[in-house]
Amino acid sequence: MIPFNHFRNVRRSSILIPTDFCGRSFKLKKIKVIFTGGTIGSRKTERNIDVDVAASYELIRLYGAFTPSRQIEFDTVQPLNILSENLVPEDWLTMIKELENIDYSLYEGIIVTHGTDTLPFTAAALSLASQGIPIPIMLIASNFPLNDPRGKGVLNFSHAVDFIMEQCLAGVFVIFENSQGEAIVHLGTRLSQSDPFTDEYDSTYSAPFGVMSNHQFIHNTHAINPSVAKLQSQSAPEVNNVPWSFSNEVLYLRPYPGLNYRYYDFSKSKPVAVLHDLYHSGTASTRNSDVFDASILHFLAYCQSHEVTVYIAPIKNKAGDLYASSHLLLEAGAIPLENISVETALVKLMLAYGSFKEHSQILQFMQETSLFFEIHQTS
């Protein structure tokens, strides 16, 4: 477990050496690369795709062949080598521990290679629990293995290198080139899960942080995006030196027509909390039925009887115009998590229940504390 403020006192070396306009030295540039497996670290053999240790390091060689004139040194480490669908919260702590061990004065930035399936969740976890690191952390992935000509692993790696060398922005970002050849830059707490048919990612409100074009970063000045200046001046909020940990006892449910809540029996084992996803309009079924129990209102009452708190997301504004079913949800005691993606809401709940004991602390953390722009606010 890593104390929240562990990174707050990290400083660059005090040795005086020539620097560029970002305050970086003119010595040979170095980037730390953390391999974790995933498709970008896999090989395709016949019809099978699986992780391969050598494939991860092949990425560096392929990048060197792709941009032979770029004078950059890469230090590599591989704390994990798994397909990302097999990832569990403890793996996030392994990555965070690896970040903790880095001497940031030696590097311009960090690149984390990752699988596509759980990329948004890891991006959120690193964004929330790795505050105060003074250099950019770039997460990249690939839709196909490196030995498949359709794969974009090398391109995404190249875009990440360009971002690091061109920007001085601390924080966690995801770069993934879409089918139009646009290298989209997402904030780590804003990424939605990839579309299963197109392999495309999106940010909440379809407003990514920016795009890489001709090796340069172009900021997207959307109303919900922080400005570059605001991101540069951000400081980690105080949360009383919390030793961060993630709970794997948060139950996540998605609504669908006919969801029967009677299948969830807490008499033998119960979660510490439930995150109930909502339809796009901030709703879930409140209909009573004699045939089966399809009402979330009954489920809420059941959870309350077992002292299990139910959170709902995504929801834009609980004080705005809501559907009748949404009002019933709130009146029944569901706790709304406003203006946050459901992927990040889930990771943040895992972090809250793994790190705090008091319900009041958890509630304040979830609803009032924003660690890395996960709670959307208009400029």
TrEMBL record:
- Molecular function terms in GO for this entry? asparaginase activity
Mind telling me which PROSITE patterns this protein's record contains? ASN_GLN_ASE_1, ASN_GLN_ASE_2, ASN_GLN_ASE_3
Please name the GO terms of the biological process aspect recorded for this protein, alphabetically.
amino acid metabolic process
Catalyses: L-asparagine + H2O = L-aspartate + NH4(+)
Q: What is its EC number?
A: 3.5.1.1
- Give binding positions for substrate: 84, 116-117
Q: Which residues form the active site?
A: 39 (o-isoaspartyl threonine intermediate), 39, 116
What broad class of enzyme is this? hydrolase
Query: What family does this chain come from, according to its entry?
Result: Belongs to the asparaginase 1 family.
This chain's protein is named asparaginase
